[in-house]
Amino acid sequence: MNKNSIITVMIASAAILTAQAKTTAERNSAGDLVLKNDNVTMVFSGGNDFLLKEFTTGGKNVLPAAGSTTHPWQMTYRGPNGENPLLMPRWGVYKGTQAAEQDGVTTVKATWDMVLDDTPKWPVTVTVALPDTAQMPRFYIDAALPEGWVITDVEFPRITVAQIPGGKAVLPIAYGTEYSLTRDGQLQTRYPSVTGSMQLMMMHDPAGTGTFFFSPRDPEGGNKVMKMKMEGDNVSFIQEVTANYDWSKDGRFALPYGVEMGYNPDTWQATALKWYRPWATSTKWGDRTLTERHIAPWVEHADLWLRPGDVNPETLAALDKALDYYGKGVGLHWYYWHNYPFDTHYPEYFPAKPGFKEMVESAQKKGAYVTPYINGRLWDPATPSYKAENASEASCRKPDGTLYTEVYSSKVLNTVTCPASDLWQRKLHYLNKFILDSLGTNGVYMDQIGCAAAEPCYATNHGHGQGGGSWWPEAYRKVLTDMRESFYKPDQVMSTEENAEPYIDLFDMMLIVNSPHNNYTRMVPLFPLIYSDRCVYSGFTYIPWNIVDGSLRYLTMKSLLWGSQLGWVEPKLLMADNAKAEQLMLKNLAKFRKDNHDIFFGGRFMSEFVPGGDNPTFSVPNYQETPVVMGAEWIDVNGKPYYVLANMSADDHQVTLPSGKSVKVKGFSAEKVKK
Q: Which of 326, 460, 564, 668 could disulfide-link to 585, CB 3.0 to 4.6 Å?
């Protein structure tokens, strides 16, 4: 063979080695159906019962030795006579699995014929799709229905995997929360809300050697609950969905999106970046960076927020002192300005407390910006307006016609209002416009929209299909967009509490303060990892009443490193004589943040780290033991990588970066270092 022939063969061989083989679905010698591509192998039993025998992903079979023995789905039906069965595979006749091509993708379909009248002729079909180059399969479910029947609730998929020894769970609760796994217990996250800000769950090895990933791929952001149910050495990953009746049409039900899952032999951070961020940044809420969005200019530069707690001379005196100390550009999130006690008489906020308008004007003259509080979700049924406007017609209805009713520390009943109702949309329009016009504020803070749960609604007069689904976030998207276009000025701000992802492109700022922190949980920066360049956010956790025990300095350090705007502290607490250290650190880090907007506005948070060297620890009451100097890796808007360091102690510390470089970080200050 001549030299040219050898080269030709070598090139051809390399092409064969690097080419991705097409997905196949074929029977093996045991009669099992094997769905396979270069990244994933799934083996479905050829026996008389459904069994996923093998699920190899990321080079590892993630299933227990016996396979995933839990039932893969269960659904609640409702018939025309009031029949209401909860059905699962064992109540049907299993028809086996078959390979099929669907929209150019190789799939495996498993089918059960269910008995809804007198014979088993109403199939439920689970489809597992595996595109040629996919690293994860996607699971779908549909069902045939007799006339007059609907599916009301779905648990799908239900997949049992082997628990990672010593593994922990990472859930999208507020910023992100890590939990220890027990042998028997359950963790869950309710989306979209503060307890489910994103559509994923992960189980990982703290040593960083592997992560199991579970993620509904719902581009409309509809309601769902994601669960991890521990049973001995196994963990079942489960999605629960309250269905919308419109999903059961023309004799067929279909869950309108699929669910992906897989194993990545890497850290949870690397897994989230690999498998969640690309999908999240393709959605309607995540497809634009901050530099591509319109954000009110003053919010872009509001590196520090204060939280005035009332309307009285003491509040004004402390606020004046704080604004003189911190200078112009401070954002003010103002509670307790309205005429009634907090969490009562919603949405009747007027008249404002005497002197509030004048305090707004005084703060604005000092260069501050004011966003007063309202609630974007609740209506007090004892208010005159509830009766006069027949607001019960706008309230969310349970299947039995009763109202969702919530009680907070005020002990007052509050009904959950349906955001799709015309009355509530008009009410939000009126409240926002009246506050902006009559009080001259710089925006409005609408509580609970990004925080509280989306409730299924079974009213027939709100313009949405009965039940759950995506109509809830769609309704808020509509009203917020309408207000933005009709009367909000470019420099006026919409903000909300917490960070449910379907709303991040609608608000100028989202306040994140509900992250759990206790002996059995740990806050982790999952949200910044995905959305730091898509969302302006403020806060870290609720501010404790004792801010001089190191807790505020810890919160300030962590807020800066995770990309949050700083502060959100009550001026009377902050400007007390015993809080000089807290005042100084907040001022220093706010200035550092303002000087580095190329990092913190449109840049990307990449990871958090503990610097080495001279870095003692400090026990933060009600939080954790922490090194006094912490660090984060960021990429600025021009793609340049940096280390950001913050020091919560009064002393200077010479610390070591991951690169090996030694850096001095002064007390109560921050530094950045080019990587």
A: 668
Q: For every residue of 281-324, which 3-state class applies, written as one string?
A: CCCCCCCCCHHHCCCCHHHHCCCEEECCCCCCHHHHHHHHHHHH
Q: What phi and psi, each to the nearest 5 degrees, are found at residue 304?
A: -140, 135
Tell me the pLDDT band of 136, cut-offs 50, 70 and 90. very high
Distance between CA atoms of residues 195 and 192, nearest Å: 8
- Token pair 């003259």 is found at 365
- Give the list of residues 6+ apart from residue 666 with CB closer than 8 angstroms, or none: 647, 652
| DSSP state letter for 391 | G
Report yes or no on whether pTM surpasses 0.85. Answer: yes
Distances (CA, A) of 136 to 69, 128, 276, 468, 589: 20, 10, 12, 27, 42
Kindly report, residue by residue over 174-211, the tens digit of the pLDDT. Answer: 999 999 998 889 999 999 999 999 999 999 999 999 99
Residue 15 scores a pLDDT above 70? no
**Structure tokens given for 63:** 């299933």
Strands (E), 524-597: 537-538, 566-569
pLDDT in tens, 395-453: 999 999 999 999 999 999 999 999 999 999 999 999 999 999 999 999 999 999 999 99
Per DSSP (E only), the strands in 31-183 are 33-36, 40-44, 52-57, 60-61, 74-78, 86-87, 92-102, 105-115, 120-129, 138-144, 150-162, 168-171, 177-180
Q: Tell me which amino acid residue 368 is.
A: A
Please state, in angstroms and rounded to a whole number, the distance separating the CA atoms of residues 286 and 534: 6
State whether residue 79 is helix, strand or coil. Answer: coil
Token duo for residue 274 = 């690999």
Measured from the Cβ of residue 508, the count of other Cβ atoms closer than 10 Å reads 25
Dihedral, 274, 277, 283, 285 alpha carbons, nearest 10: 180
